[in-house]
Batch of 2 targets.
Target 1
Amino acid sequence: QVQLVESGGGLVQAGGSLRLSCAASGSTWSINVIGWYRQAPGKQRELVATISKDGRINYADSVKGRFTISRDNAKNTVYLQMNSLFTEDTAVYYCNAGLQSTAPGLQWLWGQGTQVTVSS
């Protein structure tokens, strides 16, 4: 089993920065891909950024050039550095991991979410 715990959300003014952390514990060897999604009020959950086991990174177009995903393998932690924040970035941010399992495909796991609020 894997557990994901997010931290680092909060209130920031537009143009500011925040860094989110997602600490994984348990059978972290099974994580194939890990990243961040977000869900704004009244909207569907959407991908923000992911990083795979072999280091491939994927960003949503809306955050390219502003957000950076990184990981510290020694700490089993993934970070999302968010710069030049817009009010539209306000959402609950969820850590998400795709886990290898005995079943075909990946098993998807979600963290509890952390609120990011960007004020104008």
Target 2
Amino acid sequence: QVQLVESGGGSVQPGETLRLSCAASVRRLDDYAIGWFRQAPGKERESVACIELTDDKTFYADSVKGRFNLARDDAKRTVYLQMNNLKTEDTAVYYCALDSFCNLPDFDFWGQGTQVTVAP
């Protein structure tokens, strides 16, 4: 059973930055894809970004392109979501998830979520 632990959420003002971490209990990251999703109150869950760790192929939602970036630390088996120039509409609970590829309809393993609040 794979476990994912997210951290790094918090409350910031518009224009500020946060970095979310997703630590995976796997032997090596190369065999997997890790996606980031978010869910705002009253809204459906949406995909934010995803990385296929075999070849570092990345995907970003249009709403975050140019502001969010993915990075990896193999020694820590951790994937980061660097969020720059945050907007109020980025407020949500953010989840990381793990599976084999990014284009799957759902992911097998999920973290517990971390709250991101962006407000003046």
